[in-house]
Amino acid sequence: MNDIVEMRAVSKSFALPSGETLPILHGISLSIRKGEIIAIVGRSGSGKWTLLNTLGLLDSPTSGSLKIHGIDVTNLQDAKLAQLRGAFLGFVFQQFHLIDRRTALENVEEPLLFASRRELAHRSAVASTLLEKVGLADR
Fold first, then answer.
1. Do residues 105 and 86 make contact, with C-beta atoms less than 8 angstroms apart?
2. Residues whose CB falls within 8 Å of the CB of residue 56, separated by 6 or more in sequence, listed in order
3. By the 8 A CB rule, do 112 and 127 touch?
4. What is the pLDDT of residues 41-54, one digit of tens each?
5. What are the pLDDT digits (tens) for 87-131?
6. This prediction's pTM
7. Tens-place pLDDT, residues 18-44
């Protein structure tokens, strides 16, 4: 299996204060393979953000299944989801979301504080390598 993400028949709905249910995602099936680059496009209000939050393990599907690296994450507890986010996922925001009082290196090191002990011990070297890869080593 080369799929790093496998989403099958995922739907997501939200309960409104009125008691009504607002469906956002409707039976989405998606596979993403290692090394594949995808784009999620659509008009405003089409569910892109909800889909990304679901793929990023920040939101759980109302129905369907989601696997990340072969692990069914559909019914996992928050602590396990946080662990998987730290191990397998990264987020790139439209805004910088940097800590002003820190250098670029320190900002890149920050998420590695939640990584495995092996990665934690080498976080400065890992962060330096990542900054070099994107042409920001001088920052």
1. no
2. 85, 89, 91
3. yes
4. 999 989 999 999 99
5. 888 777 666 677 889 888 998 888 777 766 766 778 889 899 989
6. 0.73
7. 999 999 999 999 999 998 989 999 999
Inter-residue contact 57 to 81 (CB < 8 Å): yes
Amino acid letter, residue 24: I
Burial 58-96 (b: 16+ CB within 10 A, else e): ebbbbebebbbeeeebeebeeeebeebbbeebeeeeeee
Handedness of CA 30, 11, 77, 112 (dihedral sign): positive
Give 105: exposed, middle or buried? Use CB within 10 Å, 0-12, 13-18, 19+.
middle
Here the tokens at position 92 are 């790139």
